[in-house]
Amino acid sequence: MRKVQQVVNWTIDNGMYAIVNIHWDMGWINEFPTNKTESMEKYTRIWAQICDTFKDYGDYLMFESLNEDLGWQEVWNRYSGNNNGKAESFELGNEINQVFVDLVRASGGNNSTRHLLIAGYNTDVELTCDPLYVMPNDPVGRSAVSIHYYTPSTLTLIDEDVSWGKAKTTWGDEADLKELDKYVQMMKTRFIDNGVPVIIGEYGCFGDNKTVETRNNYTLTVAKELYKANMCPVLWSTPGDNQYDRANAEFIDKDMIEQLFTILD
């Protein structure tokens, strides 16, 4: 917790917003369908401690209920061709999100009105826009939805062919832009037009099998279209990715980052 607090302080002290979530955490979240009581106890005890630690922080800190784990393939597999278990999996996810909101709002300090980020179903565009996904009741109405954008995943996430797809090396033709517009409009219609803010908590294009120009075109174009729809894109980077050099504390492609920051100018 001390390390998390240190990073949050660094972030806020540099004029940025920090988002704290439970992020996979060795996979125990996968046990919710089979061991709900113990899993919910872990979940609520962790969040109680986070809330207590950060209750006096201002609005430059947001809490996010989960990362990509809100949805359980063993309950419902979207590729199974049927809906067996679908309602049950969505219902469990909706319940967890409501528990999150209720716990944070009751925890005191600025948490009573803090902006919250509600995990989408696997943070997937189509699944989060599904009618079975329900935003939790927030008495102060300060909850946004969290969705990730890595479409097409064969471009953004892999640099060689895998069992589920053939690696894509180019992006930006008419079909690609049409697909981007479809998903942006889907999120806008479901959430933005109904007063629910959308934060794209992760997006980006990675892999050495495509040119820098292709990666940058994707990164900048997606950001531009999301901004036009009043959504907030958050560029994703981990150690080993091609966005940020952590050892030297600097972006690798500074020109691209400058362009990213000037989209709204």
Task: Kindly describe this structure.
This protein is α/β, with parallel strands linked by helices. The chain is 38% helix and 12% strand. The longest helix is centred in the middle third of the chain and has 20 residues, at 86-105. The two termini are 37 Å apart.
Using the coordinates shown, work out and report the CATH topology of the largest domain.
TIM Barrel
Percent helix: 25-40%
Write out the CATH superfamily name of the largest domain: Glycosidases
Number of strands: 8
Report the uncertain regions: none
Tell me, what is the CATH class of the largest domain?
Alpha Beta
Notable characteristics:
8 strands; TIM Barrel; 6-stranded parallel β-sheet; 2 domains; alpha/beta; two-stranded antiparallel sheet
Give a short synopsis of this structure:
The protein has 265 residues and is of the alpha/beta class. The chain has eight helices and eight strands, in the order H-E-H-E-H-E-H-E-H-H-E-H-E-E-E-H. It folds into two domains: 1-147, TIM Barrel (Alpha-Beta Barrel); 150-265, TIM Barrel.
Write the layout of secondary structure elements.
Blueprint: H1 2-13, E1 18-21, H2 36-54, E2 61-64, H3 86-105, E3 116-119, H4 125-128, E4 143-149, H5 153-156, H6 174-190, E5 198-203, H7 212-228, E6 232-235, E7 244-245, E8 250-251, H8 254-261
Parallel strand pairs: 1-2, 2-3, 3-4, 4-5, 5-6
Antiparallel strand pairs: 7-8
Helix pairs in contact: 2-3
